[in-house]
């Protein structure tokens, strides 16, 4: 054990120990630095911070010690070289893309991603002059390569898509991205690094909605960005001027030269985007997030166990048309999941009821243990019928065209006993005529 550092420990131990090591007489728990500003003895001392010549803090809109402790833990868990926290998962994905894209840029993205992220890329970024081409996660290599243009600057996908539960072929997407000289950004929210570490499969940047399993208790909104530290920005300098040419808005620093492959991306994202847009996670939320991370390695196996049991139960019920869960041998993504998610993916299951909208309304009305919420990845089981909630503005034909049929139900299996979950689902299904 002599000379062993936190980086040498297993992921389970890193969940508990990484990111913060107290010195003699210092707080055992990560301290909450609830301060907007930080005091210095001289203007010269502060000037070194603004010149990026010294490490430290001057304003919590950019960085905060509590946040950095927790970000360092997440970087260790994902096997990255640097990380930062954001106010939400949406902010994390926006920052990760906008850090290397500008007006005129192009993004290749999987079409099977969270609806909010799809809108971010297809609508909001389009208003900024950033175009996108969406491809099926099951496209061939030829189809994927055909989506690139000379202006492509990033490829984006989700390890397990929310709510479609498709599994991304990370190696295929990474191969195509690197062949065109751009990074692959992967949202790893659903598996967490406990069940998949995309950087090990070729991803360059990993994002998270820490609101989900990382927090795990529905207590604190947040997001995170992790840099794998392997993408050579200077080798493709013409594509990434923001990283590879002097930033005149920050004293002319060239991030890729000064901070190298391991630090350039996060340093620019903090010094430039967080400075200008301010989507910082509060220190209080970061503290709560860390409490969740300390048990992440214990909770994820239970979520998977419950998800698998519920999926198998639902598949055998006459009221159910089909079940989406990559842990089922009959699932389209079963073999891919075995490769990337050998310990299972997550606790989210989606299924369609044969009786459509009416059946779904009856089913939801009779649930007792599972709460009706828009949330997922919580310690408590939650359930949602999109047709009567998030997608209620659409008729049945529009829902079917969008791949969200009226009878579709998404259940996020929590940490309860699987027998109680199945009993609750059974009595709700029995109420359907």
Describe this structure in a few short sentences:
This protein is of the alpha/beta class and 433 residues long.
Distance between the termini: 63 Å
**Runs with pLDDT <50, length 5+?**
none
Average pLDDT figure = 94
* Helical/strand content category: alpha/beta
Question: What key attributes describe this structure?
Answer:
433 residues, alpha/beta, seven-stranded mixed sheet, five-stranded mixed sheet, 16 helices
Give your account of this protein's structure:
With 433 residues, the protein is an alpha/beta fold. It is 39% helix and 13% strand. It contains 16 helices and 12 strands. The chain has a 7-stranded mixed beta sheet, with helices on both faces. The chain has a 5-stranded mixed beta sheet with strand order 8-9-12-11-10. α7 links the parallel β4 and β5. α3 runs parallel beside α11 and α12 packs parallel to α16. The longest helix is centred in the middle third of the chain and has 23 residues. The chain is globular and about 75 Å long. The mean pLDDT is 94.
List the helices and strands and how they pair.
Layout: H1 11-17, H2 43-50, H3 65-78, E1 82-86, H4 89-98, E2 106-110, H5 115-127, E3 131-135, H6 141-146, E4 152-158, H7 170-179, E5 184-187, H8 192-195, E6 205-209, E7 223-227, H9 241-244, H10 255-277, H11 283-293, H12 296-315, E8 320-324, H13 334-340, E9 348-353, H14 356-366, E10 371-372, E11 382-384, H15 396-401, E12 408-412, H16 418-430
Parallel strand pairs: 2-3, 2-4, 4-5, 5-6, 10-11
Antiparallel strand pairs: 1-7, 6-7, 8-9, 9-12, 11-12
Helix pairs in contact: 1-3, 3-11, 4-5, 12-16, 14-16
């Amino acid at each position: 054990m002599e000379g062993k550092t936190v980086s040498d420990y297993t992921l389970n131990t890193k969940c508990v120990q990484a990111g913060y090591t107290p010195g003699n007489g210092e707080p055992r728990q990560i301290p909450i630095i609830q301060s907007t500003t930080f005091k210095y003895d001289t203007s010269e001392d502060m000037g070194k911070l603004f010149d990026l010549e010294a490490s430290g803090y001057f304003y919590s809109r950019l960085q905060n010690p509590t946040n950095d402790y927790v970000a360092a833990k997440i970087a260790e868990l994902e096997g990255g070289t640097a990380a930062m926290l954001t106010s939400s998962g949406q902010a994390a994905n926006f920052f990760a893309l906008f850090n290397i894209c500008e007006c005129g840029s192009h993004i290749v993205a999987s079409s099977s991603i969270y609806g909010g992220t799809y809108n971010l890329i297809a609508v909001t970024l389009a208003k900024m002059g950033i175009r996108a081409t969406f491809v099926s996660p099951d496209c061939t290599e030829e189809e994927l390569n055909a989506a690139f243009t000379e202006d492509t600057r990033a490829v984006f996908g989700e390890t397990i898509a929310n709510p479609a539960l498709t599994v991304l072929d990370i190696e295929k997407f990474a191969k195509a991205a690197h062949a065109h000289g751009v990074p692959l950004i992967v949202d790893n929210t659903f598996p967490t690094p406990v069940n998949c570490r995309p950087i090990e499969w070729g991803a360059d940047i990993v994002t998270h909605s820490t609101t989900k399993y990382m927090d795990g208790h529905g207590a604190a909104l947040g997001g995170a960005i992790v840099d794998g530290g392997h993408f050579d920005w200077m080798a493709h300098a013409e594509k990434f001027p923001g990283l590879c040419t002097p930033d005149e808005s920050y004293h002319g620093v060239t991030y890729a030269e000064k901070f190298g492959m391991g630090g350039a991306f996060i340093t620019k994202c903090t010094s430039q985007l967080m400075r200008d847009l301010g989507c910082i996670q509060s220190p209080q939320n970061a503290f709560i997030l860390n409490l969740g991370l300390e048990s992440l390695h214990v909770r994820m196996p239970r979520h998977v166990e419950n998800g698998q049991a519920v999926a198998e139960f639902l598949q055998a019920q006459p009221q159910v048309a089909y079940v989406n869960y990559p842990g089922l041998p009959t699932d389209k993504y079963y073999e891919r999941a075995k490769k990337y998610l050998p310990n299972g993916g997550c606790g989210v299951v989606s299924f369609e009821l044969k009786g459509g909208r009416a059946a779904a309304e009856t089913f939801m009305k009779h649930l007792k243990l599972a709460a009706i919420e828009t949330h997922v990845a919580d310690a408590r089981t939650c359930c949602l019928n999109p047709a009567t909630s998030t997608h209620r503005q659409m008729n049945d034909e529009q829902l079917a065209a969008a791949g969200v049929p009226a009878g579709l139900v998404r259940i996020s299996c929590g940490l309860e006993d699987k027998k109680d979950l199945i009993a609750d689902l059974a009595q709700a299904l029995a109420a359907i005529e």
